[in-house]
Specification:
Elements (H helix, E strand, L loop, with lengths): L17 H15 L22 H22 L8 H14 L17 H15 L10 H11 L13 H13 L4 H16 L2 E3 L2 E2 L10 H16 L3 H18 L24 H9 L6 H16 L48 H4 L6 H4 L2 E5 L4 E6 L4 E6 L21 E3 L15 E5 L2 E2 L6 E6 L2 E9 L2 E10 L2 E9 L6 E5 L9 E8 L8 E8 L2 E12 L4 E11 L11 E6 L2 E6 L4 E5 H6 L1 H9 L19
Antiparallel strand pairs: 1-2, 3-4, 4-5, 5-6, 7-8, 7-13, 9-10, 10-11, 11-12, 12-17, 13-16, 14-17, 15-16, 18-19, 19-20
Protein name: DUF2264 domain-containing protein
InterPro entries: DUF2264_N, UCP014753
């Protein structure tokens, strides 16, 4: 298959057009064909190991997630299917559901036996909904009934109390459209939407369950399924409710994409890669977006090219378990060889007709390319910092945690760092943690554990955590341009307890990192370099580190940090003048702007904030749900 030519007049940033998206979808779908079972009911892709759900579940996952891609490809072409994708998936649909639960070559697992099948039912149902007139309506009655029988268990309460509620919603939306189990489907939709309402915190941000997990699941799950359901159902009331939330989220979310096209590698399930483009496409599809049509395509094509140009597919054209190429530390236990194909969601833009302005308008620059930004995402306790000179994105985390985070628990590298960027780390054990503040107790660095938000402002965000029983830390990041001030107020630590602040984990060909002592660290001792090994950006990373020790009941530590791709950058100490008065930091930035922050006042609010946390409405058990602590998706 010849590759479509680039069009730099229409797409000056990426060169890509709709033809490239269609070509990429076809190549991905053709590449998985050799791994289909005899009647195409399962797609068993090669990989280093099965997921914890087992090989048969993985085969269903390979089928369901590539079926979603085929559905978007064919529905976007209004039924045109030159490669016969839907014929193969129609045969597989009949084979997989004929005798589900059997250990033969094609049969799908039952949801009662394999909980992961609930997840995959959403991709099956969404694919059927999108291609109904070209696939479902042409199936014989027996096949339609056996498919419906396989899907029906997803209408029950979610077995996992997080974004999983939306898988049942998606199945219910298809069955409702098909005129099957309409009353039960309607009840499932209402129950699912009511549950996620408990987690909506405003300004477009949901928590992913009864926790403070804020990551790409906000975009590719918690907004994706309700808004797409409302759109496909032509339900104006639902779209009027969820559409503005999507727009509010995208107003923040679009700042998380680098000028290279990279989304921010933060959180879990990052092997889904360009699924990160799904929500921006959805905003354009439904009219709920702050982005112009050309900017949406620039974001989507940039993300897709970013990964494909950096080895996301192997020599057989299969998506690998990793970020650029394979990267085992990024892979969760729930991930199997077919898992990366949830990236199919990123092809949602194909539902826009070829003459839509998103395909015909010239590409526009992303926010990271237009101006420097320091922007708090208040409900999530996050602070984004971008610089137009290099298009680099940094995210400072002062309120998001993994679903299982707890005080003094093992840190998840995808959530527990104080900062993330589109071109660095994170490092993984046994290497030292990058972007981390630790007490060194008996020579071992403490973990961060659960971080509770302590406030955000125009140029700052703060959080508190308990790294060791009886010791509290109030942390804050103040940012302007490429400069960051990292401040930590350590309370009730034993006199002389060693502390360590680490900086960005950069690879040899990556951006330039700086870390400079300001207060609490010996003024005559510059940062030392620690090897941090391979990260998702590549091998040979290193991070700078500062060391100090506590003094008195309350010890304040402050350091200036910088990450930049600018050539020969000025020392970060030249970018800000910092004055410490008691436990208040006063910063005058290079352009004369000022930021003041009283850390003691934020620390004094700990008791009130903790009380508020305990009273949060999300801290109750889900109705009619099993509370098994599982974050599979």
């Amino acid at each position: 298959m010849p590759t479509p030519p680039e069009n730099r007049e229409l797409s000056p940033y990426t060169g890509w057009t709709r033809a490239h998206w269609e070509d990429t979808a076809d190549r991905l779908l053709l590449a998985v064909r050799p791994f289909a079972s005899p009647r195409h009911g399962l797609i068993d892709l090669p990989g280093p190991r099965p997921s914890w759900s087992g090989p048969r579940s993985d085969g269903l996952e390979g089928w369901a997630r590539t079926f979603l891609l085929a559905a978007l490809r064919v529905a976007g072409a209004r039924g045109d299917d030159p490669h016969g994708h839907l014929d193969r998936y129609a045969e597989g649909l009949a084979a997989g559901t004929a005798k589900p639960g059997r250990a033969d070559e094609d049969s799908w697992p039952l949801m009662a036996d394999t909980r992961q099948a609930v997840v995959e039912s959403a991709s099956v149902a969404l694919g059927l909904r999108l291609t109904r007139r070209w696939l479902w309506d042409r199936l014989d009655d027996r096949t339609r009934e056996q498919v419906a029988d396989w899907l029906r268990p997803a209408l029950g309460p979610s077995p996992v109390d997080n974004n999983w509620w939306l898988f049942g919603l998606t199945v219910a939306g298809f069955l409702q459209d098909a005129g099957l189990d309409t009353d039960r489907a309607a009840a499932t939709i209402d129950r699912s939407l009511a549950r996620i309402e408990d987690w909506y915190l405003g300004d477009g941000w949901y928590s992913d369950g009864d926790n403070r997990a804020f990551d790409h699941y906000n975009a590719w799950a918690l907004h994706f399924y309700p808004v797409l359901h409302a759109y496909l159902a032509a339900d104006r009331e639902l779209l009027d409710r969820y559409g503005p939330r999507l727009r509010a989220h995208l107003d923040d979310y679009v700042h998380l994409f680098d000028t290279t096209g990279a989304p921010l590698p933060y959180g879990r399930s990052l092997i889904y890669r360009f699924a990160a483009a799904a929500a921006p496409w959805l905003g354009t599809l439904t009219g709920h977006t702050p982005l112009g049509p050309g900017a949406t395509r620039r974001l989507g094509s940039g993300a897709l090219r970013y990964f494909l140009d950096r080895g996301a597919t192997d020599g057989d054209g299969l998506l690998t378990l990793g970020w650029h190429g394979p990267y085992p530390p990024l892979v969760q236990e729930y991930s199997g060889p077919g898992s990366p194909y949830w990236a199919s969601k990123g092809f949602l833009g194909l539902l826009l007709p070829p003459d839509h302005p998103a395909w015909t308008d010239p590409e526009e620059p992303l926010p990271a390319e237009r101006a420097d930004t320091v922007r708090p995402f208040a409900p999530a306790g996050l602070l984004v910092q971008t610089t137009a000179s290099d298009g680099l994105v940094r995210l400072h985390n002062h309120g998001s945690n993994h679903v299982h985070s707890a005080e003094a628990s093992e840190d998840d590298p995808g959530y527990a760092r104080h900062a993330y960027s589109t071109r660095t780390g994170p490092s993984t054990a046994p290497a030292p943690a990058d972007n981390h503040f630790a007490l060194l107790i008996d020579g071992a660095p403490t973990t961060r554990g659960a971080a509770a938000p302590a406030g955000t402002g125009p140029r700052w965000a703060a959080s508190r955590h308990t790294p060791h029983p009886g010791i509290r830390v109030l942390s804050a990041t103040l940012a302007h341009g490429r400069a960051e001030l990292r401040a930590h107020l350590v309370l009730d630590a034993p006199e002389g307890t060693p502390v360590r602040q680490t900086g960005w984990a950069t690879t040899p060909d990556g951006p330039h990192a700086q870390l400079h002592p300001v207060h609490g660290y010996p003024a005559d001792r510059e940062a030392t370099a620690l090897p941090t090994g391979e990260t998702l950006q590549g091998p040979g990373s290193g991070t700078l580190a500062l060391h100090g020790a506590t003094s008195g009941r309350a010890s304040l530590f402050a350091a200036l940090a910088s990450l930049t791709a600018e050539p020969a950058p000025a020392p970060v100490a030249d970018l800000a003048a910092v004055r410490i008065a008691g436990h208040t930091v006063h910063v005058t930035w290079q352009d004369g702007a000022t930021t003041d922050l009283d850390l003691a006042a934020l620390a004094a609010s700990d008791d009130r904030a903790a009380s508020d946390d305990r009273a949060a409405p999300g801290d109750r058990a889900a109705p009619d749900a099993l509370s098994t602590p599982d974050d599979r998706a």
